[in-house]
């Protein structure tokens, strides 16, 4: 079982910044594509960003493009989400997810990811 643990959430004013971290428990997770999703109360889980297993490509939701950036550290066992220019509509529980290699499906769909963290709350006040 792959364990994913998010951290870095909190309360921030609009226009501020946060960096979320997702630590993976196994070296093999470096082969996984990593995604960030978010879910606000009463809303469906929403795709935010994705990075390929070798960090060659990244994909962002239109709502965060130009403000958020996904990255990995040199050991490729931790993935980050840098969030700048935060808006109240960014308020949600943020989840990291791992997709095993060779799995089909659209990369923005939650059901194609195999492992999930417990989530970290991000609240943006005005």
Can you characterise this structure?
By secondary structure, the protein is mainly β. A hairpin with a 5-residue loop joins strand 7 (68-72) and strand 8. It contains no helices and eleven strands.
Task: Describe this protein with a few key phrases.
7-stranded mixed β-sheet, single chain, globular, 4-stranded antiparallel β-sheet, 126 residues, mainly beta
Outline of this structure?
This protein is mostly beta strands and 126 residues long. Helix content is 0%, strand content 46%.
Element order: H for helix, E for strand:
EEEEEEEEEEE
How does the helix and strand content classify structurally? mainly beta
Radius of gyration: 14 Å
Mean pLDDT across every amino acid position: 91
SSE layout:
Elements: E1 4-7, E2 10-13, E3 18-24, E4 33-39, E5 46-51, E6 58-60, E7 68-72, E8 78-83, E9 92-99, E10 115-116, E11 120-125
């Amino acid at each position: 079982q792959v364990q994913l643990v998010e951290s870095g959430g909190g309360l921030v004013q609009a226009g501020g910044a946060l960096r979320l971290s997702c630590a993976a428990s196994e070296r093999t997770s470096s082969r996984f594509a990593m995604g960030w999703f978010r879910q606000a109360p009463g809303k469906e889980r929403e795709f935010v960003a994705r990075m390929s297993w070798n960090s060659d490509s990244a994909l962002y939701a239109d709502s965060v493009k130009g403000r958020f950036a996904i990255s990995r550290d040199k050991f490729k066992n931790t993935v980050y989400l840098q969030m700048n220019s935060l808006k109240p509509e960014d308020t949600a529980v943020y989840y990291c997810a791992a997709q095993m290699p060779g799995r089909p499906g659209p990369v923005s769909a939650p059901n194609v990811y195999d492992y999930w963290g417990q989530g970290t709350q991000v609240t943006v006040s005005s």
